[in-house]
Amino acid sequence: MDIAVIGLGLIGGSMLRALASAGHSVLGYDADPATRATARTAAAQSARDSRWQITSTVRDAANAASLVIMAVPLPAVPGVLDELVDAGYTGLLTDVTSVKGPVRDLVRTHLSRSANPLAGYVGGHPMAGRERSGFAAADPHLFTQCAWVLCLEETTNLSDWLELASLITSLGARVVPTTADEHDRAVARISHLPHLLAVALAATVIDNPLAGTLAAGSFRDGTRVAGSRPELIAAMCGGNAAALRPVLDEVLDALDAAGSLLESKDPMKSLVPWLRPGHDARSSWPTPAGDSIDLPAKADVLGRLGRVGGWIIGVADDRRTVTAVRPARPD
Amino acid sequence: MDIAVIGLGLIGGSMLRALASAGHSVLGYDADPATRATARTAAAQSARDSRWQITSTVRDAANAASLVIMAVPLPAVPGVLDELVDAGYTGLLTDVTSVKGPVRDLVRTHLSRSANPLAGYVGGHPMAGRERSGFAAADPHLFTQCAWVLCLEETTNLSDWLELASLITSLGARVVPTTADEHDRAVARISHLPHLLAVALAATVIDNPLAGTLAAGSFRDGTRVAGSRPELIAAMCGGNAAALRPVLDEVLDALDAAGSLLESKDPMKSLVPWLRPGHDARSSWPTPAGDSIDLPAKADVLGRLGRVGGWIIGVADDRRTVTAVRPARPD
Question: Which GO terms describe its biological process (chains A, B) (predicted)?
């Protein structure tokens, strides 16, 4: 497959390497000339059968491609879309941005002014580690076993979706079918909210050096992601503000209830029922995988799979079935 | 030194082993007969020069001791104090409970009815890992480099305090001098609050299997301590309710402000200044240690040391000076 990767940070760079290793013909582009130079040097040093090429414009990368992957942060998406429209790109389009509703809306707005309609857009989001960033941290094995959301909306062309799902499962990832809105509400819970809590917790040791000295494991883990750059956290959380706000309120209500229990007559007892549901949820996470099964490759079947926490690990060559896994039910 | 350890869970068991290895004569007791049997078997298998003995009553353990270490959870403290009073124990007393004000008050109440006044009580708290629990997880090296609070109140006998500080630094721990009240306010921030946040966060994936499947690193680390037993978390948080409540309110106010920013015109920008202080606090934690210095072993000097996040790593044989470390100032 001829694929263009626009944006060569951790995710884009890792995709460039992973797709080239899988035998695809890959062109990469990054807006930063230094990143392009680094990626060109790395290409020359890579194995002969897994090389990529770096172009100097979005247009040059997209020209020959039948799939364009946008691997840029949300604020850079509109500019890339404009360049794709100007280049007359008409192939398949996906992205890896951590919010999906806003990208879907941007795609809709920007492509409406295009003379040539796009083959299709399928929003994507690999839940891949972000401890280090930039092309230097790129790793072709980053996506092994990672959950990779592919948005399956009512308007999505199912064969486009299956084409991408086939490509992404071939990289070792677990493809999770869901909608942009369901994705955004879910990541508000498990990715964006944890960042706000980590930052609020970290701030409690400011002006309290004694607390900083006594802090150990629970503080270390509870605040780890506060070490991410504030601009990145703001882009993630702010870009998903509509979904994050009600989840934040849910947690504020829960903590408010805990505060009342702290004032009850015997908080050492009264807190226990407040603690148990969260404790049980964490103790049964991650849910073990059930057996793999073959399912018909139909939109409604795949939508139900995502909603119960399932994923697919392969797409049949004839695109009629997928191999799926559901979380095992607790006994 | 003749030492009795009452309670042989992770902390008590580790102290038993560490003190025996350091050449002290150690007697251990646990209310659970099975734990006593396990500890007796382990004693028989330990090296000849680092053995301990297990007694069948608190009285037998305390009889010969000049130091008793209470290593039981807060709810069990009153019972142990009663037994020590009944046994006529008059030596030095310390504990390892995670809240210090309530234990101080219990000691005051229970010993007031004793005919023989105690030599002295010094509250203690090792900030040591709790991933696993019970005597089976006991490790004589658990306290290496760990911060170990020893409460230094206006009423504390300084020579008792220095005696304990000398013993504990000899186990490789960093002794942090502070008061029970300052300790309780600090651990509310860095230990008890993280547990409440972890549990509230973990609860957000209940009834959302999609979120559970997408959850990765930030959820895993942010919820880790929610895996602790609800009864243990309730005992910690409920036992420190008075100090925890205002810290919880502080975080609720901060998160409430973040919620308002999510509703602002451009949350991707307006969140940045909210995020920066917590980010900076986490990025500079743990503060690197400065050079070690000798300080006079005086209560006011030690109190100031703890308040700026410092600790002591040794006590001179003549008890006139301590070797202290302050956190290095950032450049």
Answer: tyrosine biosynthetic process
What CA–CA distance (Å, rounded) separates B45 from A185? 56
The Cα of B48 is separated from the nearest Cα of chain A by a number of Å equal to 34
Decide if A212 and B241 are in contact by the 8 Å CB cutoff. no
Best residue of A190, A224, A228, A231 to probe chain B, by most B CBs closer than 10 Å: A190
Residues B52, B102, single domain; the answer is yes
- Each residue's pLDDT, cut to its tens digit, for chain A (331 residues) gives 899 999 999 999 999 999 999 999 999 999 999 999 999 999 999 888 788 999 999 999 999 899 999 999 888 999 999 999 999 999 999 999 999 999 999 999 888 777 777 779 999 999 986 656 789 999 999 999 999 999 999 999 999 999 999 999 999 999 999 999 999 999 999 999 999 999 999 999 999 999 999 999 999 999 999 999 899 899 999 999 999 999 999 999 999 999 999 999 999 999 999 999 999 999 999 988 999 999 999 999 999 999 999 999 999 999 999 999 999 976 5
Q: Which domain holds residue A202?
A: 184-283
Q: How many CB atoms lie under 10 A from the CB of residue A64?
A: 14
Cβ neighbours of B47 (radius 10 Å) = 8
Contacting residues for B48 by C-beta, under 8 A, at least 6 apart:
none
Q: Are residues B190 and B139 in the same domain?
A: no
State the nearest Cα–Cα gap between A202 and chain B, in angstroms. Answer: 5
Instruction: Please state the domain count of chain B.
Output: 2
Pair A8, A74: CB distance under 8 Å: no
Taking an 8 Å cut-off on Cβ atoms, the answer to whether A244 and B262 are in contact is yes
Q: How far apart are CA B324 and CA A259, in angstroms?
A: 38
Q: How far apart are CA A32 and CA A97, in angstroms?
A: 18
Q: Could you tell me if residue B97 is inside a domain?
A: yes
Is A183 in CB contact (< 8 Å) with chain B?
Answer: yes
Per-residue tokens: A189 = 């819970």
> Residue B220 is part of a domain; what is its CATH number?
1.10.3660.10
Q: Do A251 and B201 touch (CB under 8 A)?
A: yes
A138 and A8 within one domain: yes
Chain B CB contacts of A202 below 8 Å: 278-279, 281-282, 285
Q: Quote the tokens at residue A153.
A: 């909306």
How many inter-chain contacts (A to B, CB under 8 Å) are there?
367
Contacts of B209 in chain A (CB under 8 A): 287, 307-309, 327
Mean pLDDT of chain B: 94
Q: Where does a domain end: B112, B143, B174?
A: B143
Question: Has residue A51 been placed in a domain?
Answer: yes
Cβ within 8 Å, pair B191-A239: no
State the nearest Cα–Cα gap between B239 and chain A, in angstroms: 6
Task: Tell me if chain B has a CB within 8 Å of the CB of A209.
Answer: yes
In angstroms, rounded to a whole number, what is the distance separating the alpha carbons of residues B258 and A293? Answer: 43
B268/A211 CB distance under 8 A:
no
